[in-house]
Structure formats: C-alpha cells, structure tokens
Amino acid sequence: MRTIDDFTRPLEYISPMDGLLGSIFREWVEKDVMPYRRQFDEDYKEHHLIHPPFKRLLGEYGLQRMIFPEDLGGWGMGKSNYMCVAAYRMFEEIARADTGMALAFGALFWPLLFIALEPHENRRLLEEFAPMFCKTTEPVFSALCMTEPQGGSDIENVEIVKGTTIQTTAVQDGDEWVINGHKLWPSNTGGLAKLMAVVCTTNPGSNDPRDIAVIYATDDMPGVTQGLPYEKAGMAADVNSDVWFENVRVPLWYRAIGPGDDAKYFGEIMATGNMGIIAWISGSMMNIYERLVEFVNRKRYHGKPLKENDGVAGLLADYTAHIEAIRIVGYQCARMCDRHDLYGPLWDPGLVAKMRAQRYLALDRFIEATGRVMNLMESYGTDRDWDVEKHWRDVKILQLVEGSKQLCQIEVARWFYECKTL
Amino acid sequence: MNDLDLFPYPKNRLQKTDVDLAASLQGLVEKEIMDKRLEFKEDYKQLLKPSLGKLMAEIGLQKMFWPEKLGGEEHNQPSASYTIAAALEQVGRADTGLAFLAAHSLALQAALALEDYYQEELCTAMAPLFCEGDQPLIVSFVLPAFAEEEGVPEWGGKSLQVKAKSGPGGWTLNGKRVRPTCSGADTDLIGAWCAVEGEEEPAFILVPGDSPRLSRSPEFLKTGLAASRNADLDFAGVQVPAVNCAWRGGEGYRRLLSWFYLGLAAAGVGALLATYEILKKWGDTRVIKGRGHIFKENPLTGALMGEISKEIAMDRLLAYNLAEMLAEPGAYGDAGSEGVFTAALMIAHHVYASAEYTTHRTMELMASAGYAKEWQLERYWRDVKTVQCHLGAYELAKHDFARWFYQAKTL
Fold it and tell me: For residues A97 and A37, is the Cβ–Cβ distance under 8 A?
C-alpha cells in the first residue's frame, strides 16, 4: 500500500538528523496532535488543546532550544549547513497535522535568526535570551513584530519603501532605547510571546536603511501590551494580536545587530520564511493525499471505487503531480538557504526573490488543486471530519502572510528584470 | 447610481413587484443582518434563525408560489424565476447560507406549485406547512450520493440514500447515515430521492421533519453556511402518506434541480456583489508603497480588481440568463428537460467556480484583512466554496455536459 513516504525527496542532501527528527515528529503528530486537531478552531483563544502538544514538543523534547549554541544549552543548529533541510522535514511533519502549529513553530525562530546565524551572531544577546528557552520545560514563544496599522506589507517591502512608513520609534535615551508604537498580526502573540523582536525606526520618515532597527523587548517589561487573539478563517494554533509598546525602555545592546545590518539581514527572515511556507504546503498536501486515498477507496460510483473512474483518476493524478513537484522544489529551496557557498548569502535579494517565486507558485497550485479535491468530495469536502477543508482554510492564510501575492510578484519581477521603479 | 447597478442585468425583464421586493430585501438585510454581524458574527440563534424567519415567514418567500386559496401569493408563473434571481442575490449578499436555505424552499415550491406542474392533492397537503404560522419552514433535500457499499440501488452512477416501499398505508422509508443537502439538525421538511423496492424508477418523497422514526445525528462542523445546521439522518421505517410522493423518474428530478440551481446561482451572485463592496472600500482607502499611493490606482492591484469586477458582471448576466430560460419554457423547453437541466447545472457550476476564483483573488488583495473575520470577506469565501461542493463533483458534472452535447451513452 502506498503511503506519504512514497513521495520523492532529494535523498542526496537531506540532513544527517533527518531520520531521528522524522520519527520523533511523526510519532508526536500521530499521538499528540492528530486526535485533537479537529477541535483546534474553537480553541483559538484559550489553547486548552493546543498548548499540551506544544509543551511536549518545545519544552519537553526541547525543540525551542535548537538554534542556540550548544554551550548555552542549545543544539547548535544555527551554525550548521543543514538547518533549513532539517527544518523542512520538521515543518512538513507538523503541517501534515496542523499548518497553524507549523507556522507558530517556525515563527518562534524568526526573531532569533538575527542573533544566532553567522556572520552576525550576537553572542551577548544569545547569552541573555538562552536561559529563557533552554532552561525550562515549558513552551516559550517569540514574535517578530513587523506589520503596522497604516501600511500592511509595506514594512516587508524594504527595497522600495526603505522603512519610510515605519511608525514605531526607538529613541536613544542615555544607555537605553525607548520604544513607542503599535504592531498588528505578529505570530505567537495574544499573550503567548515572551520575547519580541520589534521592527522600528530610529529616525521617523528616513529612507536610510541604517535607521531601520530590530530591537528586542520581553513581555514583562513595563509598557508592553499584547491584545486578545484575532478571530480568523483558520490557523487557530498561530495566535495573532495587536501589540502596543508605550515608552518601553530596553538596554541599547538589545538592538539585534546594528545600523544597516538589521535591515540587510531582514532578508534572511524572508528567505527562510518563504521556504518554510513551501514545507507547510507540502506537509498539508500529503495529509490531504492520505484522506483522499481513503475517500476514493471508500466511495463508489457506477458500482466501482471512485478512484477507478477515468475522469476522477485524472484529478487524482494531478494532485499527486503537484505534491511531487512542490516537495522537490521545496527541498531545493531549503538546500539553497543552507548552502551559502553555492547559492549566495541568505539575505541576498536574489535568493529572497527566488524563494518568493517558488512560494507563490506552490500556493497557487495548492489552492487550485485542493479546491478541486474538495469539490470531488462533495459535501464531505467541507466536512471537518474529513480534514481537507481545514487544510484549505489554513493554507490560504499562508498565501497572505509575509507579504501578499502581489508583493511577491513585484519582488520577483524587480530582481529578474532589474526593474527600477516597481 | 446604486453601486450594485454597475453590474448589468436585464432590468426590463423584471416586473415592478420584483424590483420592489429586491429593494425592500436590500434594506431589510442591511439592517437586520449586515449591520449586526460584527456583534453576532455567524450566531445561529441570535442572528441567522431570526433573519430566516423574517425572510421566509414575514416577507413571505415561503408562501410565494402557493395558490391564494391555500394561503399563498399565487406567484405561480414561470416568470417568477426573475423574482427568485432578484430576491436571492439580495439575500446572498447578506448571508449566502440564508440564501442557500431559501433556494431549497423556492425550488420545491416552484416544482410543486407552478401553474404548469400543479398537483392539487399534494399542494393541499403541503401548502399549510409553508403558509400557516409565523415560523420559517426549513426545507432540505436528500439527493443521490456516492455509495459506501456494493450492490446498493443507483441512479446515474450514484446511490440512492433512502429506500422506499409502497404499501396500503403509504410509503415506508429506510436509510442509515443519510446526508441531506442542508439543515439535518433542524429541517422541517425533507424531500428525499428514494429507490423504490421492486421498481426501477426512483421516487421523490416529502417527509415532515417531525415524523416518528426519523432521527438526527449531532450537527457536524463544516467550512461555511452557518445558517445550515447540517447533520446526518436515520430513516428507520419512517411512514408518510401516499400523496407525499411528488413525482417519479428523471423529469421531476431535473425540474426541481433546475430551479434549485437558479436560486444557488443568484445566491452566489449575491456573495460576489458583497465581495465587490468589501473590495471597493479597501481599494478606495488603502495606501501602499508608502504614503500617497491609493491601492486601486496601482497597475497590478488595479488590474486584478478589474478582473474581479469582470467575473462578477459575467456571473450576474449568466444567472439572469438562467432565469430567462426558466421563464420561457416555450422557447427553451421545460425546466425538467435535459437541455434546460444541463444549462442550469453548467451555469451554477460556472458561477461558483468564478465565485471561488474571485473570493480567492480578493483575499489576496486584502492580505491579512482577507482572512480576518472582522472584514467579513472570509465568510463569503467559505460559504461559496461550501455551496460549490453541494453542487456535486465537477469532474462528474462534466459527464452530464458531455452526455447532452455529444450524446455520450456510457459515461
């Protein structure tokens, strides 16, 4: 009998930890997530059901430590050249059960990338924050606070807008930054985030990238307020809310890297974030494949299993063709993010553009193909018990995070055609 | 000009009563549903059920086709198709799920009580359910579905979920885990397409929701259509009078569904008109690429907005074209004919494929606001997808099209 493990992966460059990580995540997903996931939508505020599996994965298994150096209690993956292919496997396994959990898991590392990766490792900040993540068995979340009320994806559009629209300010006062501003939509907020990386400006209205700053704050600092979780079409495990910063005072050395480099290395979040989205899509599609196999074997048409109808078989083939292609492309993207010696630095606008291109292509394919699968399943396609509709809702949201599709298109065109004014 | 009038439709074909009804529904749904949904969201008890009562019982959509002598409004000419189109696009604009329920009621009324199809005894038995009292009557259908067992009775390749046996006391119905099209948890009247023991031709039998030996599973969770609290049904020897058999064979089945597809197409157009209104507000006010760049003025996003409006305009024309076909049986054939049925099925599928495409694209333009419940767009996206799935598998509907246009015999 065919299984999801029959889909192709580029075996020549999977990570050395792949087998171990794969089996840990597969077992965790089957035991701790699958039995409860159909009730996650209604659990979006309280996380009564969502918290226990996160506690197991992040706190007890210790996955939240993996990016920190080994001497600080971490696993040292931030310095490996297989971080992204290893992450791809983990992301895929989680997304097979719940894309929201996969996003929340991936997003907790975004703020840490600024300080954990070479060549811009910030040892002092790693030492400062490592105990928060490494000396506990409770799950610890972090959040990258980017989006603001007035501009949506403008913050991500650094190349053109150059930070001119950032309203959140960081003003130096002695040996401290004073942060003021209002952020929308960061993943892992709504009261979850212990650590926040805040994208702000040190000179409002400036188009000098050196004035774009990424500065850390913790949830217990006076003036930091996380709002209530937003109600969304899906992705209940990924909590988003407003976050307000009112005269939040942090030490000067809480700035991630420094003038110019904060903006430059922001590209690393974009590249890995877009790669992660492809992993979440392929994980989700593999679970849809599993459910579809059950459906077309169980349901009969003209006296035969549905899968034996030639017209239906065409659709089934299309779906698996998409999984094959997206998965191979996704692993290739992960490899490109790992091998800076071959593909250039992770922050490079060309690499970011390529990740964006593959991400939006994969999403377009997912949306079109999964819509057809739901339709084939008739009313069961929209029935929560068959799981496909939840993936459809959740993955749609992935299309709209880290910049809309149109922003992706513009960035891709800008790089490949050397556009000057887009 | 009303923003909705930007999208053309054949105004000259509508009677003044249709225009007045649409205008009054537009006001009603804005006040009773759209203005309240930030507070009540998709709450069935506080928002959707009371709204259904207003539409079906107070405004009287459930009384529309029945003869005056039976308490109805006797709007029983084929041209009532325009009334359905005009009314349900307004209801669908406010809540696609409510329009979905209304489409069931209006299709059944049309198939039973239109002048050309009128059956005195059956209508006398059924009309009081629709015309008396002040509560909405929720109608659902049980249509052929994919079988899970070998050897079950089939109709067009699918299984008939309910088996019926005729006897001296009427009909006895049996079926386990039967999935209705809507509202299994609280339907008041079920029109079930049944296999008849010992006979080839299936029967469409009407079953009151309070019939003994009819039981309901708990409501199941689904993508959209909150107004439809659906649940599977068990028929364990349910008995109904002989008169409750509305018709036998394919013609009645096709007639019912042709009218049903008109209602669904109009409901889908309503959802698209709402999508347009949400996007217009977004495009008029949103600034991108820094200060001063209005969203709708950007060549990339503006082009996509243009494409979205093209889809909506074409879908509205198509829905009204279907109304025209049903209004003119002399020109196009009866609603129960294979040609009209095929056209109705094609138009319904086309409208919902377009609605799916359009709501997806609109969400992309609105980014996180597209999936935030606060902006309301995502509910239309979920609702239209749910209706589309209820139309049946498109891969198989294409065989219906091929059967008609290419005279395929074995698909």
Answer: yes
Omega before residue A305 within 30° of 0, cis: no
Using CB atoms, pick whichever of B148, B222, B378 lies closest to residue A299: B148
For an interface test with A, the pick among B354, B364, B388, B400 (most A C-beta atoms closer than 10 Å) comes out as B364
**Are residues A292 and A133 in contact, defined by beta-carbon separation less than 8 angstroms?**
no
For residue B161, count CB atoms less than 10 angstroms from its CB and return exposed for 0-12, middle for 13-18, buried for 19 or more: buried
Q: What is the pLDDT of residues A265-298, one digit of tens each?
A: 999 999 999 999 999 999 999 999 999 999 999 9
The tokens for B14 are 């509508």
- Helix runs in A212-260, H state only: none
Cα–Cα distance for residue pair B316/A130, rounded to 1 Å: 59
Q: Which of A324, A303, A377, A356 is nearest to A159 (CA)?
A: A356
Question: From residue A171, how far is each of A125, A222, A243, A256, A302 by CA, in Å?
Answer: 20, 16, 18, 15, 72
Separation in Å, CA of A405 to nearest CA in chain B = 6
- Residue A152 is predicted with a pLDDT of 61
Residue A151 has pLDDT above 70, yes or no: no
Instruction: Report ipTM (2 d.p.).
Output: 0.96
Domains by residue range for chain A, with CATH: 4-139 (1.10.540.10), 143-260 (2.40.110.10), 262-416 (1.20.140.10)
Residue A208's H or E segment, with its range, is none
A400 with B372: Cβ contact below 8 A: no
**Residues of A in Cβ contact (< 8 Å) with B384:** none
**CB atoms A396 and B221 under 8 Å:** no
pLDDT exceeds cutoff 70 at A154: no
Domains of chain B: 3-137 (1.10.540.10), 141-248 (2.40.110.10), 250-406 (1.20.140.10)
Residues B326-361: tens digit of each pLDDT: 999 999 999 999 999 999 999 999 999 999 999 999
* Tokens 């005056």 found at: B68
